[in-house]
Amino acid sequence: MDRSGVTLERMRSFVRVAERGSLSAVAREQGLGQSTVSRHVAELEGALGVTLLNRTTRRITLTDEGRRYHAEARTILRLVDEATDGARSAGGGLTGTIRISCTAALGVRHVCRMLFSIQDRHPEVVVDLGLSDARIDLVQQAVDVAIRLGPLADSTMQCRTIGQSRRILVASRAYLAERGRPETPDDLAGHTSIRMSNVAGSAMLSLRGSDGSAIRLPFDSRLWVDHGLAAREALAQGRGIAAAHIWLIDDLLAAGMVEQILPDFTLEPVPLSLLVVPGRTRIKRVRMLVDALAASLATLPGLVRA
């Protein structure tokens, strides 16, 4: 084995290709040419004297040797990152890049400002924020921290539960003036709703009365959207009634542009959590960001603390 050929750069390229299963995706991620990433992997294989990846025109998979080496290489790279982080932190403030994933509407409405405040306190920290409602694979996408709304599937990620996000039924003042205000859940049948097409079960509305009774009724709609900000705009434009997170429409409520309806009936709240890739909290800048985000998210309008 040619140990001089086993470099951190080649090792990082191999690890990311193994996790993403794509040379082109890793090339875009690292700002390199695809041929460069391919060469890194080939040179690492040559230095080790083993084949790490099976390559076909359709997919890339790990060999048995590649699977073992990937696990060990990830550990080595994590230790290098931790050592580098410790050395930099000893010299002063926090430095380095943190990659964050967040549901889009929450990111735009609130999380961006939280991150701006964190960067003001730690100007050497680079924040890479990805906004998506898709449940991405954090390891595959090289994300450190994810802000997630909704129940979580079994996961190997570290989880910090922030609280429960309250939702309420709302409509614009103009809509209610034109169509009338529902006084009972049954009255909703005569109204237009705004439905989130990417939320499981959104075709049915589940309410709980002040006496604890559970009510389920259809929540059909002429307008389906897959983005919270589109639902917010539809509400503001008087397109119908929606079940909205309070943090999504708190300013519209304060300005009187939208109003709560059926206040005696509550909607099931939605869990809000922080997911962290295992081992990343050993890195000081990630640990700082998780703690700062958790404190800021706990102040969201409508959030009930865990």
What does this 3D model show about the protein?
A hairpin with a 5-residue loop joins β9 and β10 (214-218). With 306 residues, the chain is α+β, with helices and mostly antiparallel strands. α1 packs across α4 (64-90). It has a six-stranded mixed beta sheet with strand order 4-3-5-15-6-16, with helices on one face. A three-stranded antiparallel beta sheet has the order 12-7-13. It has helices spanning 8-20, 23-30, 34-48, 64-90, 104-121, 173-179, 228-236, 246-254, 284-297; strands at residues 53-55, 60-62, 96-102, 125-131, 145-149, 158-165, 167-172, 194-196, 204-208, 214-218, 223-225, 242-245, 258-260, 266-267, 270-276, 303-305.
Short description:
Helix content is 39%, strand content 24%. The chain is α+β, with helices and mostly antiparallel strands and 306 residues long. Strand 1 and strand 2 form a beta hairpin.
